[in-house]
Fold:
Amino acid sequence: MAQASEPPASTIDPREAEHFGKLAADWWDPKGSSAMLHKLNPVRLKYLREQIDHHFGTDEHDRRPLDGRRVADVGCGAGLLAEPLARLGGQVTAVDAAEENIAAARTHAQGQGLEIDYRVGGVEGLDGPYALITSMEVVEHVADVPAFLAGLARALAPDGLLVMSTPNRTTMSRLLLVGAAEALGRIPKGTHDWDRFLTPDELTAALAEAGLEVTDTCGLAWDPLRGLHLGHDMSLNYLVTARRL
Structure:
């Protein structure tokens, strides 16, 4: 009789979970400790919508392009991205390592009349397949990057879409994200460890090892005139779209 395979080891870094759990109380405050995420969210959603329409062939004017599709948001925090995904029609499962974040997410979603399956845990708890998986600003915080990406690949449907964002490991990101942003209080101190950032080439190679093919990359840049915006400059932060090989 064949033995049951052991469940995959957790990719959660307890220190990271504790750090972000402490921010749960004001996660939804656009002027609070997560203010930068509130600024990032519309830009990320613009890119995400473009990739959804391109991949699934949906109309850009359709208000619910994810109707009938299972969606997972990994490392969801208090639900800043999970809620828009639900409004786009997705049947959303959202996971986060911090219990405090999930509690805040559930309370906020209830107040918005949204049904989202919030779960405490990591990528290992996903019960795919999912048509769409998002994981924004998460891979740089996990304990085991290859295992984390393998978990995303396992949960993704054969014709599914994966969209991620993460800081690039450059001099610019060290100066602005880790240095200036934390020193000026724009990001809580201790949020980032520059040595754990991945370059686009490193993430692309790691995704390939997990059986995923990168189909698009896009910079998430900032300048004084335009603020945060999508473009070719990936020196600070970038987004990646991938699918199963």
Observations:
- The chain is about 35% helix and 25% strand.
- Strands lie at 70-74, 91-96, 117-120, 130-136, 156-167, 212-223, 227-231, 237-244.
- The helical segments are 14-21, 35-56, 82-87, 99-112, 145-155, 171-183, 200-209.
- The chain has one domain: 14-168+200-244.
